[in-house]
Design a protein that fits this description.
Alpha-Beta Plaits; Globin-like; single chain; Arc Repressor Mutant, subunit A; alpha+beta; disordered N terminus; 6-stranded mixed sheet; about 425 residues
Length: about 425
């Protein structure tokens, strides 16, 4: 969120609710400085710097934009930065002339800045670095303003370094505290927005104004493509927040939210392989089910359904796409309706896992007994016998389309059941 187009007053010289460092600057009244006895040489140097303040402000502004990337990225308007630099210099120079730390009001102005920079999306370390740039340039200007050959002024200016660094310490502390508080508030709001959007997505309640507002707040394109992932294996809500931060290093837009025993990830304009890789690094043992990318908010809901169905057939540590497992995912979603139709095959499969391997290998080999036998490391007669045995026990002939279809549907994806190519216990393992 950038603060742009900020006015400086109401046309009559009065502030209009602006942050303290962006209000119209008035000429400092140096005659009323409370200069301690014996400190006049430093106050004189301060006046000379203040009399030529504009070039110094421009130099600092240029240096900040040149040296600090977030400022170069146009997160902060130039006039915003320039006004803040000017007011900060005026306050510090007055504090230096009076040999004092910042007042409570001056610290409040810096806290306002910390809040504003957080809202603009500037990291706190960049804000602090910008302050150090300003103090560096100010100190060089103070040194340049020393009267030639004036040893007393030189000695006193050196001792004034402690005043400057006290300002650095107190002001940056105030900025950092306000920035952190604002960042926590923004993060809490963002977590809430992501959570609420996922709840509306799960409920299918996407046609109202709340959904549209959340889409804008999360910077999604309502008409763009959405892809949903479901992750199992995350047990701490904090992990979802950390995963959100991890995904923000990837291109595109992402929203991560916990929902019951799973974490849901909404993705737009991002490489799904990179997303899965990032999730795998963050959650090494988790299972990842990936829905198909679909357009618009109705598409987001459909992609969530894809991911939910795929999650039902995704084993621990696996990454499975709906596009690859659509048959099993769809059948899993209709398990209650199909259970009576498939019960016989499932019962046989549980008792005779070696038959499962034969049927699945036969299906994978394009209905070729010899190819299935090679894949299992068995004799073709053994595989043929097991197919016959499956037919005998289930009533489904795997050598027919109807029988093989029902068999494959009952058994699920290869690897889900304990079928293998070895000889099972019992008299039929040959």
């Amino acid at each position: 969120m950038n603060i742009t187009g900020i006015a400086t007053g109401d046309g009559h010289g009065r502030a209009t609710g602006l942050p303290g460092d962006l209000r119209a600057s008035t000429a400092p009244d140096t005659a009323h400085w409370r200069v301690p006895p014996g400190w006049e040489p430093v106050a004189d140097i301060a006046r000379r710097v203040l009399d030529d303040i504009d070039p110094l402000v421009e130099r600092i502004t240029d240096a900040v934009f040149e040296e600090i990337v977030p400022y170069r990225d146009d997160l902060v308007p130039r006039e915003d930065l320039r006004g803040s630099v000017l007011r900060n210099l005026e306050a510090l120079i007055a504090g230096l002339a009076e040999r004092r730390p910042p007042t409570a009001q001056e610290r409040d102005v810096r806290r306002e800045l910390g809040t504003r920079r957080a809202l603009q999306g500037v990291a706190v370390d960049a804000v602090i670095k910008a302050y150090h740039v300003g103090y560096r340039e100010l100190w060089q200007a103070l040194v340049a303003a020393l009267p030639p050959g004036d040893e007393d002024a030189t000695t006193k200016l050196l001792s004034a370094a402690t005043v400057v660094w006290q300002w650095v310490h107190e002001v940056t502390d105030a900025i950092a505290a306000a920035h952190a508080a604002t960042t926590r508030t923004l993060e809490a709001r963002a977590v809430g927005a992501r959570q609420r959007f996922v709840e509306l997505l799960a409920a299918g309640d996407l046609g109202g104004p709340e959904a549209r507002r959340l889409v804008r707040a999360l910077e999604f394109d309502a008409a763009g493509g959405f892809q949903i992932l479901i992750i199992r294996g995350i047990t701490d809500d904090l992990d979802a927040v950390e995963l959100q931060h991890a995904l923000e290093t990837n291109p595109g837009r992402h929203a991560v939210a916990s929902r019951g025993a799973v974490v849901i990830v909404v993705v737009q304009d991002s490489d799904i392989e990179e997303v899965a890789t990032t999730i795998r690094r963050a959650v090494p043992g988790g299972s990842i089910a990936i829905g198909t990318e679909r357009p618009g908010l109705p598409g987001a809901r459909a992609s969530l359904e894809d991911a939910e169905q795929t999650s039902a057939v995704t084993g621990t540590g696996q990454v499975v796409r709906f596009e690859d497992a659509w048959l099993w995912a769809t059948l899993a979603g209709a398990d209650e309706r199909l259970s009576r139709l498939l019960a016989a095959g499932r019962a046989v499969a549980d008792e005779h896992p070696h038959l499962v391997a034969a049927v699945q290998a036969f299906a994978a080999a394009g209905f070729s007994v010899s190819a299935a036998a090679r894949s299992l490391g068995l004799h073709a007669n053994t595989v043929s016998y097991r197919l016959d045995r499956w037919h005998e026990l289930t009533g489904w002939d795997p050598r027919t389309f109807a029988g093989l279809t029902r068999s494959v549907a009952a058994l699920g994806p290869v690897g889900q059941r304990p079928g293998n190519g070895g000889s099972p216990p019992g008299p039929e393992g040959g």
